[in-house]
Amino acid sequence: MLREAGTEPPFIGEYTDTVTEGIYACRACGAELFRSSEKFDSHCGWPSFWSPLAGETVELLEDRSLSHVRTEARCASCGSHLGHVFKGEGYQTPTDERWCINSVSLRLLPKAD
Fold first, then answer.
1. Which of these is catalytic: 26, 75, 78, 100?
2. Which of 33, 51, 59, 103 could make an SS bond with 14 (beta carbons 3.0 to 4.6 A apart)?
3. CATH topology assigned to domain 22-102
4. In angstroms, rounded to a whole number, what is the distance separating the alpha carbons of residues 111 and 2?
5. What is the pLDDT of residue 62?
6. Where are the domains of the chain?
7. pTM of the full structure
8. What is the rounded distance in angstroms from the CA atom of residue 78 to the CA atom of residue 107?
C-alpha cells in the first residue's frame, strides 16, 4: 500500500480512534511525520490530522487518479504514500485542513512517561 498509493478501507485502521500521546512516524522509514496533538476526530474512517510536523517531512503531489484532482501526501524521506489532504471542509481546526492518513502507513511512537 505504501508503494502502490492505495487506500485502506475506512474504520478498520489501527490508529483511527487512537488518543495515545506521541509522534506518528512513517512505517517504511521511521521519519517523524505527525504529532498526536494535531490529530482530530473527523469521523471519516481514517486518522486525521490538521497539520504535519514543521519542516519538509511530507511532500504534496497532485493526484489525478480519480475523476477529480486531489492532493496526495507522501513521506518526503522515502516517498511512501500516506494519504490525501483536503482543505476547506469546515472542520474547526487551526488550518481548516484534513490530512486523511492511512493507519498502515504510520507507526505510533508513544510519549515516554
1. 100
2. 103
3. 2.170.150
4. 25
5. 82
6. 22-102
7. 0.89
8. 15
